[in-house]
Automatic annotation (TrEMBL):
Bilayer-crossing regions: none
Residue stretches of biased makeup (Low complexity): 116-136
Quaternary structure and partners: Interacts with MinD and FtsZ.
Lineage, uppermost ranks: Bacteria, Pseudomonadati, Pseudomonadota, Betaproteobacteria, Burkholderiales
Protein name: Probable septum site-determining protein MinC
An example Gene Ontology biological process: cell morphogenesis
UniProt keywords, alphabetically: Cell cycle, Cell division, Septation
SUPFAM superfamilies reported in the protein's UniProt record: Cell-division inhibitor MinC, C-terminal domain
Region (Disordered): 116-137
Protein backbone atom coordinates (compact mmCIF):
# COMPACT_ATOMS: atom_id res chain seq x y z
CA UNK A 1 0.00 0.00 0.00
CA UNK A 2 1.60 3.32 -1.06
CA UNK A 3 2.34 5.92 1.58
CA UNK A 4 0.12 9.02 1.65
CA UNK A 5 1.62 11.98 -0.14
CA UNK A 6 1.14 15.51 1.28
CA UNK A 7 -1.52 16.12 -1.37
CA UNK A 8 -3.45 13.01 -0.41
CA UNK A 9 -3.14 13.64 3.32
CA UNK A 10 -4.72 17.07 3.00
CA UNK A 11 -8.53 17.20 3.00
CA UNK A 12 -10.03 18.68 -0.14
CA UNK A 13 -12.80 20.50 1.75
CA UNK A 14 -14.34 21.17 5.17
CA UNK A 15 -17.86 21.99 6.32
CA UNK A 16 -18.07 24.77 8.89
CA UNK A 17 -21.06 26.42 10.50
CA UNK A 18 -21.23 30.18 10.15
CA UNK A 19 -23.54 32.88 11.42
CA UNK A 20 -24.95 35.26 8.83
CA UNK A 21 -27.87 37.32 10.09
CA UNK A 22 -30.05 38.20 7.16
CA UNK A 23 -32.20 41.00 5.92
CA UNK A 24 -35.77 39.83 6.46
CA UNK A 25 -38.35 41.46 4.19
CA UNK A 26 -41.91 41.15 5.53
CA UNK A 27 -43.98 41.49 2.38
CA UNK A 28 -47.37 43.11 3.03
CA UNK A 29 -48.62 43.49 -0.55
CA UNK A 30 -48.53 41.30 -3.67
CA UNK A 31 -48.34 44.48 -5.76
CA UNK A 32 -44.68 44.83 -6.76
CA UNK A 33 -45.21 48.33 -8.19
CA UNK A 34 -46.54 49.47 -4.82
CA UNK A 35 -43.55 47.92 -3.12
CA UNK A 36 -41.25 49.69 -5.56
CA UNK A 37 -42.82 53.07 -4.79
CA UNK A 38 -42.48 52.58 -1.05
CA UNK A 39 -38.90 51.34 -1.28
CA UNK A 40 -38.04 54.49 -3.18
CA UNK A 41 -39.82 56.64 -0.58
CA UNK A 42 -37.96 54.98 2.29
CA UNK A 43 -34.53 54.49 0.76
CA UNK A 44 -34.48 57.15 -1.93
CA UNK A 45 -31.32 57.06 -3.98
CA UNK A 46 -29.09 55.50 -1.33
CA UNK A 47 -26.84 53.15 -3.32
CA UNK A 48 -24.81 52.16 -0.25
CA UNK A 49 -27.73 51.37 2.06
CA UNK A 50 -27.21 47.64 1.47
CA UNK A 51 -24.03 45.88 0.45
CA UNK A 52 -25.08 42.71 -1.39
CA UNK A 53 -26.63 41.40 1.83
CA UNK A 54 -28.56 38.15 1.84
CA UNK A 55 -32.34 38.46 2.13
CA UNK A 56 -35.25 36.18 2.98
CA UNK A 57 -38.84 37.12 2.14
CA UNK A 58 -41.51 36.55 4.79
CA UNK A 59 -44.85 35.88 3.05
CA UNK A 60 -47.00 35.32 6.15
CA UNK A 61 -48.81 38.67 5.78
CA UNK A 62 -49.81 37.96 2.15
CA UNK A 63 -50.42 34.23 2.43
CA UNK A 64 -54.18 34.61 1.91
CA UNK A 65 -53.98 37.15 -0.92
CA UNK A 66 -55.79 36.07 -4.08
CA UNK A 67 -53.51 38.10 -6.37
CA UNK A 68 -50.37 36.24 -7.50
CA UNK A 69 -46.92 37.57 -6.68
CA UNK A 70 -44.49 38.17 -9.53
CA UNK A 71 -41.44 36.74 -7.80
CA UNK A 72 -39.13 37.32 -10.75
CA UNK A 73 -40.00 41.03 -10.66
CA UNK A 74 -39.63 41.02 -6.87
CA UNK A 75 -36.15 39.49 -7.09
CA UNK A 76 -35.09 41.98 -9.76
CA UNK A 77 -36.40 44.90 -7.69
CA UNK A 78 -34.60 43.78 -4.55
CA UNK A 79 -31.35 43.20 -6.42
CA UNK A 80 -31.56 46.77 -7.70
CA UNK A 81 -31.21 47.80 -4.03
CA UNK A 82 -28.07 45.66 -3.65
CA UNK A 83 -29.58 42.79 -1.69
CA UNK A 84 -29.51 39.15 -2.73
CA UNK A 85 -32.83 37.35 -2.22
CA UNK A 86 -32.17 33.69 -1.45
CA UNK A 87 -35.35 32.29 0.06
CA UNK A 88 -38.93 32.63 1.24
CA UNK A 89 -41.09 31.28 4.02
CA UNK A 90 -44.64 31.56 5.33
CA UNK A 91 -46.45 31.55 1.99
CA UNK A 92 -49.28 29.46 0.59
CA UNK A 93 -48.37 26.34 -1.40
CA UNK A 94 -49.03 28.24 -4.64
CA UNK A 95 -46.83 31.16 -3.55
CA UNK A 96 -44.03 28.85 -2.45
CA UNK A 97 -44.15 27.03 -5.79
CA UNK A 98 -44.00 30.33 -7.69
CA UNK A 99 -41.08 31.47 -5.53
CA UNK A 100 -39.24 28.22 -6.21
CA UNK A 101 -39.75 28.73 -9.96
CA UNK A 102 -38.03 32.11 -9.55
CA UNK A 103 -35.03 30.47 -7.89
CA UNK A 104 -35.87 31.12 -4.24
CA UNK A 105 -35.54 28.30 -1.73
CA UNK A 106 -37.82 27.47 1.18
CA UNK A 107 -36.22 28.59 4.43
CA UNK A 108 -37.11 28.34 8.12
CA UNK A 109 -38.79 31.34 9.67
CA UNK A 110 -36.29 34.18 9.91
CA UNK A 111 -36.40 37.34 12.01
CA UNK A 112 -33.21 39.29 11.54
CA UNK A 113 -32.12 42.80 10.62
CA UNK A 114 -29.48 43.80 8.14
CA UNK A 115 -26.03 42.29 8.98
CA UNK A 116 -23.34 40.09 7.64
CA UNK A 117 -20.03 39.21 9.27
CA UNK A 118 -17.28 40.73 7.11
CA UNK A 119 -14.11 42.10 8.65
CA UNK A 120 -14.78 41.96 12.35
CA UNK A 121 -17.27 39.58 13.96
CA UNK A 122 -17.80 39.28 17.69
CA UNK A 123 -19.98 36.64 19.24
CA UNK A 124 -20.39 35.77 22.87
CA UNK A 125 -19.89 32.07 23.45
CA UNK A 126 -22.90 30.22 24.77
CA UNK A 127 -22.51 29.38 28.47
CA UNK A 128 -21.95 25.79 29.44
CA UNK A 129 -25.16 23.92 30.08
CA UNK A 130 -25.97 23.62 33.77
CA UNK A 131 -28.12 21.12 35.59
CA UNK A 132 -31.79 22.09 35.56
CA UNK A 133 -31.98 22.47 39.33
CA UNK A 134 -29.07 24.89 39.39
CA UNK A 135 -30.51 26.91 36.49
CA UNK A 136 -33.79 27.33 38.32
CA UNK A 137 -32.07 28.76 41.38
CA UNK A 138 -29.81 31.22 39.55
CA UNK A 139 -31.15 33.80 37.08
CA UNK A 140 -29.45 33.85 33.68
CA UNK A 141 -26.76 36.50 33.36
CA UNK A 142 -27.00 39.02 30.53
CA UNK A 143 -24.25 38.61 27.96
CA UNK A 144 -22.16 41.48 26.64
CA UNK A 145 -19.63 41.75 23.83
CA UNK A 146 -17.03 44.51 24.31
CA UNK A 147 -15.06 46.02 21.42
CA UNK A 148 -12.16 48.22 22.50
CA UNK A 149 -10.72 49.10 19.10
CA UNK A 150 -11.89 51.64 16.51
CA UNK A 151 -14.12 50.21 13.79
CA UNK A 152 -13.11 51.41 10.34
CA UNK A 153 -15.18 51.67 7.19
CA UNK A 154 -16.10 48.20 5.95
CA UNK A 155 -15.81 46.50 9.33
CA UNK A 156 -18.87 44.83 10.86
CA UNK A 157 -19.47 43.44 14.33
CA UNK A 158 -22.40 41.30 15.39
CA UNK A 159 -23.12 40.49 19.05
CA UNK A 160 -25.27 37.38 18.83
CA UNK A 161 -27.66 36.98 21.75
CA UNK A 162 -25.91 39.78 23.59
CA UNK A 163 -25.55 43.50 24.17
CA UNK A 164 -22.70 45.24 22.38
CA UNK A 165 -20.40 47.81 23.99
CA UNK A 166 -18.00 49.76 21.77
CA UNK A 167 -15.37 51.90 23.47
CA UNK A 168 -13.92 53.53 20.36
CA UNK A 169 -15.27 55.31 17.30
CA UNK A 170 -17.60 53.54 14.88
CA UNK A 171 -16.46 55.21 11.67
CA UNK A 172 -18.59 56.11 8.67
CA UNK A 173 -19.03 52.90 6.68
CA UNK A 174 -18.62 50.60 9.71
CA UNK A 175 -21.56 48.59 11.04
CA UNK A 176 -22.48 47.30 14.49
CA UNK A 177 -25.31 44.85 15.18
CA UNK A 178 -26.61 43.30 18.38
CA UNK A 179 -29.53 41.14 19.39
CA UNK A 180 -29.68 43.31 22.52
CA UNK A 181 -28.69 46.93 23.21
CA UNK A 182 -25.82 48.83 21.62
CA UNK A 183 -23.66 51.21 23.69
CA UNK A 184 -21.08 53.33 21.87
CA UNK A 185 -18.93 55.37 24.24
CA UNK A 186 -17.44 57.34 21.36
CA UNK A 187 -18.72 58.89 18.12
CA UNK A 188 -21.21 56.69 16.31
CA UNK A 189 -20.85 57.62 12.64
CA UNK A 190 -21.61 54.32 10.94
CA UNK A 191 -24.65 52.05 11.08
CA UNK A 192 -26.08 50.62 14.29
CA UNK A 193 -28.78 47.93 14.42
CA UNK A 194 -30.06 46.87 17.84
CA UNK A 195 -32.66 44.18 18.50
CA UNK A 196 -31.44 42.42 15.37
CA UNK A 197 -33.59 39.34 16.03
CA UNK A 198 -36.76 41.22 16.85
CA UNK A 199 -36.23 42.61 20.37
CA UNK A 200 -38.35 45.77 20.21
CA UNK A 201 -37.17 46.84 23.68
CA UNK A 202 -33.53 47.11 22.62
CA UNK A 203 -31.95 50.56 22.55
CA UNK A 204 -28.96 52.35 21.05
CA UNK A 205 -26.85 54.69 23.20
CA UNK A 206 -23.97 56.90 22.09
CA UNK A 207 -21.96 59.72 23.63
CA UNK A 208 -21.82 61.34 20.17
CA UNK A 209 -24.71 60.38 17.90
CA UNK A 210 -23.93 61.09 14.23
CA UNK A 211 -24.93 57.87 12.42
CA UNK A 212 -25.47 56.82 8.83
CA UNK A 213 -28.33 54.66 10.03
CA UNK A 214 -29.91 53.50 13.26
CA UNK A 215 -32.41 50.64 13.47
CA UNK A 216 -34.23 48.71 16.17
CA UNK A 217 -36.00 45.45 15.37
CA UNK A 218 -36.47 46.34 11.72
CA UNK A 219 -37.50 49.99 12.11
CA UNK A 220 -34.78 52.27 10.84
CA UNK A 221 -33.80 55.88 10.15
CA UNK A 222 -31.10 57.11 7.79
CA UNK A 223 -29.15 60.35 7.49
CA UNK A 224 -31.49 61.40 4.68
CA UNK A 225 -33.46 62.99 7.55
CA UNK A 226 -31.12 65.20 9.64
CA UNK A 227 -31.15 64.64 13.39
CA UNK A 228 -32.61 67.35 15.63
CA UNK A 229 -30.07 69.82 16.98
CA UNK A 230 -30.50 68.62 20.57
CA UNK A 231 -29.20 65.13 19.71
CA UNK A 232 -27.01 65.54 16.61
CA UNK A 233 -23.41 64.87 17.63
CA UNK A 234 -24.42 64.75 21.29
CA UNK A 235 -25.08 62.06 23.93
CA UNK A 236 -28.38 60.46 22.99
CA UNK A 237 -30.39 57.28 22.95
CA UNK A 238 -32.57 55.66 20.30
CA UNK A 239 -35.58 53.54 21.24
CA UNK A 240 -38.55 52.09 19.42
CA UNK A 241 -42.11 53.15 20.17
CA UNK A 242 -44.61 51.26 18.03
CA UNK A 243 -43.39 51.46 14.45
CA UNK A 244 -41.34 54.60 14.99
CA UNK A 245 -37.93 55.44 16.41
CA UNK A 246 -37.63 58.02 19.16
CA UNK A 247 -34.28 59.79 19.55
CA UNK A 248 -33.72 61.58 22.86
CA UNK A 249 -30.83 63.42 24.52
CA UNK A 250 -29.14 61.75 27.48
Amino acid sequence: MPADTPARARASFDFKRTTFPLVSLVLRTPDISELQRELHERLGDSPDFFDQDLLVVNLAAVRDEASPIDFRALVALLRSYRVQPIGVHGGSPEQMAAAAAAGLVTTPEVSAAKSMAKSATAQQAEPAQKPAESAQKSPALAKTVVIDKPLRSGQRVYAKGADLVVLEVVSFGAEVFADGNIHVYAPLRGRAVAGARGNVDARIFSTCLDPQLVAIAGVYRTIETPLPADVAGKPAQVRRVGDSLVIEPL
